[in-house]
Design goal:
This protein is mainly alpha-helical and 99 residues long. It has a domain at 2-58. It has 4 helices and 2 strands; from the N terminus they run αβαβαα. It has helices spanning 2-15, 28-39, 47-58, 75-85, and strands spanning 20-21, 44-45. Strand 1, helix 2 (28-39) and strand 2 (44-45) form a beta-alpha-beta unit. The longest helix has 14 residues, at 2-15. The termini are far apart.
Length: 99
């Protein structure tokens, strides 16, 4: 219960512009380290806050098996899909130079 509450509060604080989040049981050395870390432009989070996002991120996402829908792509269509997969968003992929 405490971890969930701390995680939720940390998200609110970070969205408001905070450079980090510590719980009230942080000792003097932890607080000093957090202040120095924030002064360097870095973010610091209490361990209890870090656990949930790390646990979620480390889960394997299930992948759907490829489906054969009977559609054949041309080599250029596959190339365009590859460009989209690389994150091309500013220009239309079909206008990109061929590799």
């Amino acid at each position: 219960m405490v971890a969930a509450s701390a995680t939720a509060m940390s998200f609110v604080a970070l969205q408001a512009g905070s450079s980090g989040y510590l719980t009230k049981d942080a000792d003097r050395d932890t607080i000093l380290h957090a202040v120095r870390t924030a002064a360097q432009g870095q973010t610091i989070l209490a361990p209890v806050v870090q656990r949930r996002p790390l646990a979620l991120a480390s889960r394997r996402m299930p992948t759907a098996p490829p489906q054969d829908d009977g559609i054949e792509l041309t080599p250029r269509e596959r190339e365009i899909l590859g460009l989209i997969g690389e994150g091309l968003r500013n220009r239309r992929p079909e206008t990109q130079p061929r590799r």
